[in-house]
Structures are given as structure tokens and as C-alpha cells.
Design a protein that fits this description.
The chain is α/β, with parallel strands linked by helices. The chain has helices at 31-42, 57-66, 82-90, 111-124, 164-170, 182-187, 208-219; strands spanning 2-7, 25-26, 29-30, 47-52, 74-77, 98-103, 126-132, 137-141, 144-148, 154-156, 160-163, 194-197. Pathway: Isoprenoid biosynthesis; isopentenyl diphosphate biosynthesis via DXP pathway; isopentenyl diphosphate from 1-deoxy-D-xylulose 5-phosphate: step 2/6.
Length: 223
């Protein structure tokens, strides 16, 4: 069984505004619908678990009706942090298989990246997509800072795909603020994570600036 656990339980503080960022329209369609569609296009049999704050779930139901959006999915409650949201969603993973955890606000993940991460995870058990750093990186040391070799760093995206039993076991660990993604949770158990190629368009819509990039990506047919 393949699961996609789409997390959209955050507060969107960096985006601001009245409407939570996962519901903002891009090209007339809410971000979150585009994200779910990407996973359904990859595998129409995939089991999609959508994590949303409890207070936003009735609005999501209304949006689905308004947009005639009928892709099957199970809704779980959001938690205090991303870690707690993923953990809530994992309660709906009930059979062995693979779980891809994906940010609801990354609608531009490519079909190639999704397929590659699931395919590799069947063998490696823990796979995450990454891209190169394209700017120079400096490390802050107190009042000073030094240039470091960018070749020693990667930028991490989602979907992060894992063997279901492994991921569920990892999420039994106590929460620490170091857990900013799923790989960091799995690694805390001493398990190595395999790196796959991500796609640069797979941005995490975080600030109003990212919405402009998203609109440009759609307009230019880059995705
Ligand atoms: N308690 C949380 C926090 C985050 N997320 C999800 O994790 C993804 C990455 O988080 P981010 O983009 O930082 O979203 P927010 O936490 O909502 O943003 P901010 O930090 O600006 O408030 C998002 O899809 C977000 O909804 C979640 O499901 N539950
Ligand atoms: C999971 C993630 O998108 C990988 O880059 C990222 O760690 C989420 O971080 P955020 O601070 O919750 O946006």
C-alpha cells in the first residue's frame, strides 16, 4: 500500500493574511487541491491522508464542494507542531507499505520526483528529495562569519518517503525542536536517509513572495 500524508496543519504566520495559505488560489485553484492532485496523478490507488487544523475542516469541505473536488482522502487533525501533525496522520496508516510525507504547500512537486522517491524507498526504506545550494553559504560564529563549502550542503524538500513501520516507530520518540522534517526524526533512531534528486520548482509556499513565484511558474508553463 502507498500512502501520501499531506500536512497542512500549520498557522502560516510567515504568510499572514486572513485565508490560510493552503487555501489560497493559484491560477484559480486552492494550493492544497493542486498538491493532492499531484499525488493522485502519480498513483490513483494511493491512500491520501490530509492533516488540517480541526477548525479548518468544515471550510475545506465547503471548498471541495465549490470546486467539485472529489479525490478520495481521509482528514486528520493538525497538531501543535509539524511533528505532532505527522504523528496524528500516521494513526491512519494501518497497513504495511510506504508513507510519503509531503507539505501541503508544495504543489509543484514533479511526477518524476514523487515516483523516484517512492520507487527508491521500496529498497532503501528512507528517501528524501534534495536540491543543490546555488548561492554562497556563510556560517555564523558569534560576531564573525565564514564562508563554507556549499558542496557540503543540500536543500531538503518533500515528499520524504519511508517504510511505514519504520516511520511509525520513529514518531514514537519524544518530540524535540530539532525535528524540522521527517528525516531528522528517522535519523534520531540511527537510521540513514538516502538522498534523491528534487525539483527546483518544488517550492514551499511560505511568504507572499512565494505566491508571486507560484503564479509565475504557472504562467510560464514551467510546471
Ligand atoms: N503544526 C503544524 C505546522 C506545520 N504544518 C505543515 O508543515 C508544512 C511546512 O510548514 P510551514 O510551511 O512552515 O507552515 P506553517 O508552520 O504554517 O508556517 P509558519 O511557520 O509561517 O507559521 C506546511 O504544509 C504546514 O501546514 C503542520 O501540518 N502542522
Ligand atoms: C519539511 C521541510 O519542508 C523540509 O524542507 C521543512 O523542514 C519545513 O520547515 P518549516 O519551518 O516547518 O517550514
Amino acid at each position: 500500500m502507498e500512502y501520501a500524508l499531506i500536512v497542512a496543519g500549520g498557522k502560516g504566520l510567515r504568510m499572514g493574511g486572513e485565508l490560510p495559505k493552503q487555501f489560497l488560489p493559484i491560477g484559480g485553484k486552492p494550493v492544497l487541491m493542486r498538491t493532492l492532485e499531484a499525488f493522485y496523478a502519480y498513483n490513483p490507488e494511493i491512500h491520501i491522508i490530509l492533516v488540517l487544523p480541526h477548525s479548518q475542516q468544515s471550510y475545506w469541505t465547503e471548498l471541495c464542494a465549490e470546486h467539485s473536488f472529489s479525490l478520495p482522502h481521509t482528514v486528520a487533525d493538525g497538531g501543535e507542531t509539524r511533528f505532532h501533525s505527522v504523528k496524528n496522520g500516521l494513526a491512519y496508516v494501518t497497513t504495511p507499505g510506504l508513507v510519503g510525507v509531503h507539505d501541503g504547500v508544495r504543489p509543484f512537486v514533479s511526477q518524476e520526483v514523487i515516483a523516484c522517491c517512492y520507487e527508491l524507498a521500496a529498497e532503501k526504506k528512507a528517501v528524501i528529495p534534495v536540491i543543490d545550494v546555488v548561492e554562497t553559504v556563510r556560517h555564523l560564529k558569534g560576531e564573525e562569519s565564514v564562508t563554507v563549502s556549499r558542496d557540503e550542503y543540500k536543500l531538503v524538500q518533500t515528499p520524504q518517503v519511508f517504510d511505514a513501520d519504520l516511520l511509525k516507530q520513529a514518531y514514537e520518540q519524544p518530540y524535540t525542536s530539532f525535528f524540522t522534517d521527517d528525516a531528522s526524526v528517522v535519523e534520531a533512531m540511527g537510521v540513514s536517509v538516502y538522498l534523491a534528486a528534487g525539483n527546483r520548482e518544488n517550492i514551499k509556499i511560505t511568504t507572499p513572495f512565494d505566491l508571486k513565484i507560484a503564479a509565475a511558474l504557472l504562467d510560464s508553463c514551467l510546471i
